[in-house]
């Protein structure tokens, strides 16, 4: 692969930088995965751990064989941008496993800078910064979504509390209304004189006289009133089969005395 300084090669160089940046990041991820597998293989003495160590050793030898091609100038002259990027990913991933592979990674950095004018270290730094920026943006978006969800839950809780409080308020108002009605009824009963009483009859007679009725008319009304001894509404609403209550002796004598006084 070679590049001249024209417009087309600038496009190719840009694509090459993108490929190398991705290869560098993928190589770092591969290195972490290999390190984790190596720890798991050395921390256990079981058969599975032994098989894992064997697989890692085989993959290491494959990587060494592949990267040996980077020692050949002809390979560099014929390799495509994709092939160089894939080879660098392998070198970056296995560099910590063998000194020969660490040398291969360093050699590729040098050759890429010399042949193509691309500094892989700068690409790696830029890629890391971009990755951190993306991570920060993702975290900010996650925090924003969490805050919005919390606010929505609070609004729903407030609405639920208001909805649940309505029946309680209605019940309290209903109880207050019943209490006020009962109190008003009790006051009204205490304020009104008893129907079968001398005070009420005297007030009735006085009212009839003031209304212009003659003494005879007033006396007739009061005699009927004393004989009835209860309001006309109660007499009408009473049950037909109910026998009239026997007048008490004391009340009869009082009525007779009142009739005598009215007749005079």
TrEMBL record:
Residues 138-147 have a biased composition (Low complexity). It comes from the Bacteria. Residues 254-264 have a biased composition (Polar residues). Residues 128-168, 193-264 are annotated as: Disordered. Residues 148-168, 193-204 have a biased composition (Basic and acidic residues). This is Colicin import membrane protein. It comes from Litorihabitans aurantiacus.
């Amino acid at each position: 692969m070679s590049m001249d300084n024209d417009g087309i090669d600038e496009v190719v160089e840009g694509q090459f930088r993108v490929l190398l940046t991705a290869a560098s990041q993928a190589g770092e991820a591969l290195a972490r995965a290999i390190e984790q597998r190596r720890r798991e293989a050395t921390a256990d003495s079981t058969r599975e751990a032994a098989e894992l160590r064997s697989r890692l050793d085989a993959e290491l030898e494959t990587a060494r064989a592949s990267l040996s091609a980077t020692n050949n100038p002809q390979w560099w002259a014929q390799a495509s941008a994709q092939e160089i990027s894939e080879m660098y990913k392998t070198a970056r991933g296995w560099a910590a496993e063998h000194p020969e592979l660490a040398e291969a990674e360093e050699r590729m950095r040098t050759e890429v800078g010399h042949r193509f004018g691309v500094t892989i270290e700068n690409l790696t730094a830029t890629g890391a910064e971009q990755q951190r920026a993306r991570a920060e943006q993702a975290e900010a978006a996650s925090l924003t979504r969490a805050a919005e969800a919390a606010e929505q839950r609070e609004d729903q809780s407030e609405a639920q509390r208001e909805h649940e409080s309505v029946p309680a308020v209605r019940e309290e108002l209903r109880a207050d209304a019943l209490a006020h009605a009962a109190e008003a009824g009790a006051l009204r009963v205490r304020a009104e004189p008893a129907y079968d009483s001398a005070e009420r009859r005297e007030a009735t007679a006085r009212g009839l006289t003031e209304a212009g009725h003659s003494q005879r008319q007033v006396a007739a009304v009061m005699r009927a009133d004393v004989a009835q001894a209860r309001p006309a509404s109660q007499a009408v609403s009473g049950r037909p089969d109910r026998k009239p209550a026997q007048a008490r002796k004391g009340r009869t004598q009082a009525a007779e005395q009142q009739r005598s006084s009215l007749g005079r």
